[in-house]
Amino acid sequence: MSVSFFDDSLPIVILLTMPEPNEPLEARALLTLPQSTQARIGQFAHPARRRQTLWGRLIAQCYANALGATLVEERPYPPYLLLPNGEHRALCIAHTQDTIAVGLASALDPVMGLDIETVRPIRSVNGMSRMIFGAAAEWVIHRCDTEGNTNPFFLVWGMKESEIKLNRGQKHYQLTINHHNNTPIVHHTKEQTVLNVTHHALDKLRLTILTQTQTPTLKHVTPTEVLDPLLKRQR
Fold first, then answer.
1. Distance CA 203, CA 19 (A)
2. What is the pLDDT of residues 14-33, one digit of tens each?
């Protein structure tokens, strides 16, 4: 994927469905990544988790190559891109089953947090909402009762997971309720600015993206589109 693959003035989220396991090919692909990234992937003992991490990092490396940047690990948080001018560009990676989502902040919008979930039965919407969602819990419970489904639960779950990834161990952003219209928001705890939230319902998948102001571009790619440019650079 070249720099023409995306417009750097807009945030982008790439979605990929992992192919069937191919150990020789994935071993070659691993070598296209920085040593620190290879080491991080090697720490995962579970094969499925290791493959999810590998494919997420391969997409991130495509972003890095397109921008002439370096993929930098910052354990235990998502990696980021170090651009030639010294700028840090935010990345965020999420996965569910065989689907990988990788978001990249834009040159004009530094914020990128995302989550992707597979819709599944929730044993107790009331109990889990009150345990996880804080001030947004009652909104979730009421909307799930009103709509007769769990879509509101997964909407706010995605916002909460995206907030956690975006915070990187800090408490800069918080899921709460907008008291003017009683809807869930994620805001900056000091500046009180409210983040832009984008939701996509993709069959059984629910994708949530947090940005500062811009609406991200969503693009589906194939494994071949990711691997071919990386392996060509390796030769």
1. 19
2. 999 999 999 999 999 999 99
Cα separations in angstroms, 182 against 92, 138, 173, 175: 28, 10, 18, 13
- Residue 56, pLDDT above cutoff 80: yes
Q: Residue 3 has what pLDDT?
A: 45
Q: Write down the pLDDT at residue 1.
A: 55
Q: Letter for the amino acid at 149?
A: N
Q: What is the mean pLDDT of residues 103-121?
A: 96
What distance lies between CA 225 and its chain's CA centroid? Answer: 19
- H, E, C per residue of the chain: CCHHHCCCCCCEEEEEECCCCCHHHHHHHHCCCCHHHHHHHHCCCCHHHHHHHHHHHHHHHHHHHHHCCEEEEECCEEEEEECCCCCEEEEEEEEECCEEEEEECCCCCCCCEEEEEECCCCCCHHHHHHHHCHHHHHHHHHHHHHHCCCHHHHHHHHHHHHHHHHHCCCCCEEEEEECCCCEEEEEECCCCCECEEEEEEECCEEEEEEECCCCCEEEEECHHHHHHHHHHHHC
Cβ partners under 8 Å of residue 147, min gap 6: none
C-alpha angle 19-25-30 in degrees, rounded to nearest 5: 100
Q: What is the mean pLDDT of residues 77-85?
A: 95
Query: Phi-psi bin for 74: left (phi > 0), alpha (psi -120 to 50), beta?
Result: beta
Tens-digit pLDDT profile for residues 180-199: 899 999 999 999 899 999 99
